[in-house]
Amino acid sequence: MSDTEAHSVAYVRDTMMPQQPAPAGETGAIRWLRENLFSGWLNTVLTLLGIFAIYLFVSHFYGWFLHGVWEANSIKECRQIIAERWGPDASGACWAVIRERWHQFIFGFYPPELYWRPILAFALLFVAIGPLMFQFVPKKVAWFTPIYPFLAVWLLWGGSVWGPVLVLTGFVLGGVVFMAVARFGSIMAFSVGAIVTILYFLFAVGPLISLFHAMIPVGLESVASSKFGGFLLAITLGVGGIAMSLPAGVVLALGRQSDMLLIKTFSVIFIEFIRGVPLITLLFVASLLLNYFLPPGTNFDIILRVMILVTMFAAAYIAEVIRGGLAALPRGQYEAADALGLDYWKAQRLIILPQALKISIPGIVSTFIGMFKDTTLVVFVGLFDPLKGIPDFIRADFNWKGIYWEPFVFVGAIFFILNFAMSRYSMHLENRLQREHR
Amino acid sequence: MKKSVFFGALTVASLAAGVAGAATLDDVKARGELICGVNTGLVGFAAPDANGNWSGFDVAICKAVAAAVLGDPSKVKYVPTSGQTRFTALGSGEVDLLARNTTWTFSRDTDLKLQFTATNYYDGQGFMVRKDSGVTSAKELDGASVCIQTGTTTELNLADYFKANNMSYQPITVDSNAEGEQQFLAGACDAYTTDASGLAATRAAFANPSDYVILPEIISKEPLAPAVRQGDDQWTDIVRWTIYGLIAAEEYGITSANIDELAKGTDNPEINRMLGTEGNLGAMVGLDKDWLVNAIKAGGNYGEIFAATIGEQTPIGLARGLNAQWTQGGLMYAPPFR
């Protein structure tokens, strides 16, 4: 065979050709560009349009950012400095307003000598949510989590230490009663525990706080809600709303799926009503209408009022997101839980909710991010949100009147950082809980 | 578990529910603090500085009342109120006094159950245009686009004015003064309209104020007056006569500089009555003898307050105009202290 071949073919290569580098058009940046940006006439046009848009954006704002001034005491000084450095027609950012007033963007009117309290509360927040959010945090830290809300309220608002301690005691009391009566059935135990707790709050807490405070007056300096503002307010409302709306949303979602007519009707009415009404309407109800219902002179804290309404609003959306997760579970999961002989609560806790919640994570986090951003709407009820309330009163100082874009850029950047972190965490959580084999 | 925050705070809040229905004066004295509703931020009238200390023309009224009632101008808690929340805040008892550049109108006085005490600033709505537009009178604004804040009386005044003069205009609605300035500077509208005091402050803050002119026409009456709740006449009297006291002090030449001297007694019986060296006017409104001495010491007389917050020496540079004393051709006229 080889003979015939040797005769019929003029030349046979007996060594391998050395490897050649790929043609310039098929490697590295050029190939990437060609494949991703210029792969057809349509994509080429779109790429050029995109570059043009970026050029427009950069050419308009580049100078503004480049000419930014940090060291000045008023917008007039900013303008002078920019005119001196870059010529009379140059425009530039006056970041000096951020440098002088950054603490008001962060803390509002919170007394500066007490800034350590919100900072500490914020730091401890991570200790409290660490064991719930990250696996590397020791589970032992979790005992701190239920205490944290009381500690945070005490740190932020101050006052007698006995307020939060005795309120916490009330819940412990309810829990103890629940345990004690538990052997008579969970519904019975829950009702008795709830009644004891409510009676305690209605009649015992007030006198006890006064009594203990009279005996051992330990406390922090009180800070009124009107002193809250900026990101302190947004984060307080956001964290409070998130922490309360998730459990409330789960309960509402289960209520809507329930067979019990009363519970189902209530859940449906609540969810549909809240979702059907704009958040601003609810905020106005919180700030204006409630005043007319409550007895005159009642001082029902405005931040608390707003937090309750924001929570209700978020809970209605969370409930629907979780209902989506529940609906996505195959019927077999419910049947499997029944087959194991689990009762309703055990089935929900061990089988249904873990899977439904995992499916719902993106939706839940979206709702949280939306809610956090919506906290800026409190400006309409006279609270100092970081986006409009704080800049507006800073502009009321003649030194900074005329400042417009700088606060938006600054506040927008902080919101982006916080929300982006939440979003990345939700992706991390989805990956961690990934159980399908792919 | 975190629901406990809500219940706990609810309990605390219900505990804090104080006595209701008592006279405002007694409430303020018992509290040791005047709660004053102010603007969330208006140049010259009410603005907190970097340390959160409020100052301004309206704020000075709060301080004077606090000084008259409690003897200390610093014992004021400022509650910022928005245009929407201000009347409810007053009506529900959240604030004792609303010193928030609020126009005294018929329906607010009667229907909203407010009691306006005394006008502390006579304002009016005006227009600002670019100088190179060549417009010199509001009558020439036919067909112009006008930047206007929504939900304010200025919006209604504008419509009335153009209708009465048989002109047309295109409204460019904005949400806040800051946004209005941006739109006007960016050329989105030919004219910007708001209260004349606000226009002056806005123009003064521009990079090139001389490129813009404020037209001479004032198209509305805006008497700004601190307000209190209806039904507490004593409290109304206190606020009203504190303001009149500041105005009269300017008329009679009582200033924060010479008040200590004058409070020892003068030849003028009216000054003596005001400063408590003759008779006891303070007791008639339930206050100390030296209530007006304290009020005037807080920030000076009306003229001093005006000069320090919005007057011609300040960057805002408002002329006295209608707000001059009646003896100087203005409208500031305090009834006699007798």
UniProtKB/TrEMBL annotation, chain A:
Residue intervals passing through the bilayer: 41-65, 114-134, 141-157, 163-182, 189-216, 228-254, 266-290, 302-322, 359-383, 403-422
Subcellular location: Cell inner membrane; Cell membrane
InterPro entries xref list: AA_ABC_transptr_permease_3TM (IPR010065), ArtM/GltK/GlnP/TcyL/YhdX-like (IPR043429), MetI-like (IPR000515), MetI-like_sf (IPR035906)
Topological category with respect to the lipid bilayer: Multi-pass membrane protein
Top-level taxon: Bacteria
GO terms under biological process: amino acid transport
UniProt entry keywords in alphabetical sequence: Cell membrane, Membrane, Transmembrane, Transmembrane helix, Transport
Domain called ABC transmembrane type-1: residue spans: 231-426
Alphabetical list of PROSITE patterns matching this protein: ABC_TM1
SUPFAM superfamilies: MetI-like (SSF161098)
Gene3D superfamilies per UniProt: MetI-like
UniProt keyword Transmembrane, yes or no: yes
UniProt main location, coarse: membrane
One Gene Ontology CC term in the entry: ATP-binding cassette (ABC) transporter complex
Stored NCBIfam families: HEQRo_perm_3TM
Family, similarity comment: Belongs to the binding-protein-dependent transport system permease family. HisMQ subfamily.
Name of protein: Amino acid ABC transporter permease
Taxonomic lineage from the root: Bacteria, Pseudomonadati, Pseudomonadota, Alphaproteobacteria, Rhodobacterales
TrEMBL record, chain B:
Domain of life: Bacteria
SUPFAM superfamilies found in the cross-reference section: Periplasmic binding protein-like II
One record GO biological process: amino acid transport
Signal peptide: 1-22
Record Gene3D superfamilies: Periplasmic binding protein-like II
Keyword Phosphoprotein: no
Keywords: Signal, Transport
Alphabetical list of Pfam families matching this protein: SBP_bac_3
Annotated Solute-binding protein family 3/N-terminal domain residues: 33-262
Family stated for the protein in its record: Belongs to the bacterial solute-binding protein 3 family.
Protein name per UniProt: Amino acid ABC transporter substrate-binding protein
